[in-house]
Design goal:
By secondary structure, the chain is an all-alpha fold. About 70% of the residues lie in helices and about 0% in strands. The chain contains eleven helices and no strands. Helix 4 runs antiparallel to helix 8. The chain is globular.
Length: about 280
């Protein structure tokens, strides 16, 4: 009696074994994965929409107020900076998104799945940061240019407006977008350090907003030397056309922004070190 052998499903006699996965998980694939994550999260869209509305809206209110009191404005009036006034509040919104970008996966436990798919922690951390920075910068450009053109339109009736062709104005408007992106990256680094959404958001708001207010309680002789080192004050010089007063004066625009980026870099490096060393 003949014996019939049933072939195993998916295999053929004499077939070579399937090759295993070759190479290491790459940065390009991680970028695509992180972009899919941030794009598929509904809260990202609402936060970015809120960022645009707040930045443009508060800038419009400040510009309308300047137009209404045009006869009371002094020689140091900066129409470009006035139209970008909403960045003071926009920095808080982008900080929330920056913190959530890294902490949300800890809150849901998805960080374990992400690290299983991409075990190279440095690559995943960098890819997530690059995707968020790109989103923040593009949105920041929309906010800055939208706020600038809206504000200048409101002030043009009183002939106190500025144009992009005037000295340093374009730098200030683009600088507003860079400022927002740096705020987001600072919060991203803090989020990687704390791994807790509420804590990261609170710490970011304190560093960006509350400290800028509390420094006014210092004695005058201290303020002269401390003000320019406060993160948000140093960074905001990039979106000012006219130099701020003070004794000694504030940092130059690019110098102040470099100081601000230094704070963000410290937070990012510390966050990366802890991200690679701690368990998920």
């Amino acid at each position: 009696m003949a014996t019939t052998t049933t072939p195993v499903a998916g295999r053929h006699a004499g077939a070579a074994p399937l090759p295993g996965p070759a190479g290491r998980a790459g940065f390009t694939g991680s970028l695509r994965s992180e972009f899919t994550k941030i794009r598929s999260t509904r809260s990202t869209y609402w936060t970015l929409i809120a960022l645009v509305l707040i930045t443009v809206g508060f800038g419009a209110l400040a510009s309308a107020g300047a137009a209404h009191n045009a006869n009371q404005l002094g020689p140091d009036f900066d129409p470009a900076q006035r139209s970008l006034f909403g960045l003071y509040f926009g920095q808080l919104v982008i900080a929330v998104l920056g913190a959530v970008t890294i902490t949300s996966e800890y809150a849901t436990g998805m960080i374990r799945t992400s690290l299983t798919a991409m075990p190279r922690r440095g690559t995943m951390f960098a890819a997530k940061a690059v995707v968020f920075a790109a989103v923040a910068l593009v949105t920041g450009l929309i906010c800055s240019f939208g706020a600038f053109f809206t504000g200048q339109a409101l002030m043009s009736g009183q002939h106190i407006n500025a144009t992009l062709g005037q000295p340093h104005v374009l730098r200030a408007v683009v600088g507003g977008a860079l400022f927002l992106a740096a705020c987001g990256m600072l919060a991203y680094g803090i989020g990687a350090i704390l791994r807790h959404t509420a804590g990261a958001i609170t710490a970011s708001i304190v560093l960006l907003f509350v400290v800028s207010i509390l420094v006014n309680a210092l004695p005058g002789s201290w303020q002269d030397h401390v003000d320019k080192w406060v993160p948000a004050i140093a960074g905001s010089q990039i979106w000012a056309v006219k130099a701020s007063g003070g004794n000694p004066p504030m940092f130059a625009p690019w110098t102040g922004f470099a100081v601000f980026c230094g704070y963000a870099a410290i937070a990012m490096i510390a966050g990366l070190i802890l991200f690679r060393r701690r368990d998920a």
